[in-house]
Specification:
Blueprint: H1 7-38, H2 43-70, H3 81-98, H4 107-138, H5 143-172, H6 189-211, H7 228-240, H8 242-272, H9 277-305, H10 307-330, H11 332-337, H12 342-375, H13 380-408, H14 419-426, H15 428-445, H16 451-465
Length: 468
């Protein structure tokens, strides 16, 4: 049995999630508002730029995973951390410049700078993120420790998710005589960007320092040489692995549910429930705190009952809470006067989402072992790159579907509309949740790997390597 990873290594690895989570979440939460309300660029143009960047970002993930797989372990910091370090530097520079575009510059200059910097930011984000995720699989070959490692990553991921609201609203977007609405102050964005960039470099450095030379993956089980035909072949091989395909699709639908919240959550809580910013903060804060607190619980459940069983339990809770949320939407008039009744549902959803996000990444690491047993080659980068591609594709689909639904129900923010229309608007969350979590549960149920199977594949690979 492999010895447990030191706590400092797990914390160091988890901290790396903040190096990309903070700047990426800034873009997710503030980019459209910043571009349209502060830089005064047309919404259609901003949406087009954002859509192109998402497509580019998604398709570069498998490429970056393949490149890092083929990189020699002899480069500075090793094949994964080299890209974590260089990607963080590029991401930090682009992030700061993105939030420092001069709103007084000519229209063409503003548009060009915004588009170029966003594309570069997405590129460096991929350079950092995909090898970082693959690194998590390499830190340990122990079945249980992999879940623990991913629990730390997920906990830090949720902290990064909270950064824009905490730092932006509390520190940088304070009202002033010139800007009663602090979010409209152009001068607030460069220091916010600088802070995020400094944290990006700092947390990447923490990750490098504590995980350097901690990889458990054998150097001998790799093939060198980059080619696009090789990239295509290895990506297809990954998707042909039934267990990988099933857990990757389950993760896709879990992330699609998260994407629906990101795209339509503010609409639902603002218009369907009529919540103030304070009440919304209480609800989402409860969800995030529950997700953080749930990490050790789901890690222990996976250790005792198997990962797939624990993930199925998470998804069953997700489905049940979705039904509860549908009832809350249908009684939104009463809920608007009793907002605390939403908190238990938010806590339950956060608790289950904490496991729903952490466990699949640990399970992907196990599928890499199975694939290595049959192919003789380790391909963590390709496996995690393909999973990240699915994640980003799911975000694009979620955003498009949410926008289409909002238009179909006839929502118009410029006028006051009926409570019935706001209820139809609000149903996007429970309906989307039910579809996504049910689909994720279906694919999780088809996943077959357990502790004994993973041990069998690992043992077979070792014996083959030793000539047994």
């Amino acid at each position: 049995m492999e010895r447990k990873l030191p706590l400092k290594v797990k914390i160091g690895y988890g901290a790396g999630a903040l190096s990309y989570g903070i700047p990426v979440q800034l873009v997710t939460g503030l980019f459209v508002f910043y571009s349209t309300a502060v830089l005064r660029l047309p919404g259609a143009s901003v949406g087009l730029i954002l859509s192109i960047s998402i497509v580019w970002d998604a398709f570069t993930d498998p490429v970056m995973g393949y490149i890092s797989d083929k990189t020699s372990a002899g480069v500075l910091f090793g094949r994964r951390l080299f890209y974590v370090f260089t990607g963080a530097l590029g991401l930090a520079v682009c992030n700061y410049l993105l939030w420092s575009v001069d709103p007084r510059a000519p229209y063409g200059v503003r548009m060009f700078e915004l588009a170029a910097l966003l594309m570069l930011l997405k590129t460096f984000s991929t350079v950092l993120t995909t090898p970082y995720l693959a690194l998590g699989s390499e830190l340990t070959s122990d079945y249980t420790e992999r879940t623990s490692v991913q629990s730390f990553r997920t906990a830090f991921f949720f902290l990064g998710y909270m950064f824009p609201a905490l730092a932006g609203m509390a520190l940088y977007f304070r009202p002033s005589p010139s800007y009663p609405n602090g979010q409209l102050n152009p001068g607030a964005y460069p220091p916010l960007g600088l802070t995020a960039s400094a944290l990006t470099i700092a947390f990447a450095a923490v990750c490098v320092f504590f995980t350097y030379k901690k990889s458990a993956a054998p150097e001998t089980a790799r093939k060198r040489g980059f080619s696009f035909s090789g990239l295509f072949r290895e990506t297809v091989e990954a998707l042909k692995c039934p267990d990988y395909r099933n857990i990757a699709l389950a993760l896709l639908f879990i992330n699609m549910a998260m994407g629906i919240v990101g795209a339509a959550g503010m609409h639902v809580f603002t218009y369907t429930f009529g919540f103030s910013s304070y009440k919304i903060a209480v609800v989402f804060g409860s969800l995030f705190v529950a997700a953080l607190a749930a990490q050790p619980v789901w890690a222990a459940a996976a250790k005792k009952y198997e990962k797939r069983t624990a993930l199925k339990a998470c998804l069953i809770i997700d489905v049940a809470v979705s039904a509860v949320f549908a009832a809350l939407v249908l009684t939104s008039g009463w809920v608007s006067e009793n907002y605390l009744c939403v908190v238990p549902a938010a806590v339950a959803m956060g608790f289950s989402l904490g496991g729903s996000i952490a466990l699949p990444y640990s399970m992907i690491a196990d599928t890499v072992d199975k694939d290595e047993y049959f192919s003789g080659v380790r391909k963590e980068g390709v496996f995690y790159g393909s999973a990240t591609f699915m994640y980003k594709a799911s975000q694009a689909v979620s955003a498009s579907a949410a926008g289409l639904y909002i238009d179909l129900v006839g929502f118009d923010p410029a006028v006051s509309q009926s409570q019935e229309l706001y209820q139809r608007l609000g149903l996007i969350l429970p309906a989307g949740f039910l579809v996504c979590f049910a689909a994720a549960l279906f694919f999780t149920s088809k996943y077959t790997l357990d502790r004994a199977a993973v041990a069998y594949y690992q043992r077979g690979t070792r014996e083959r390597g030793n000539g047994g």
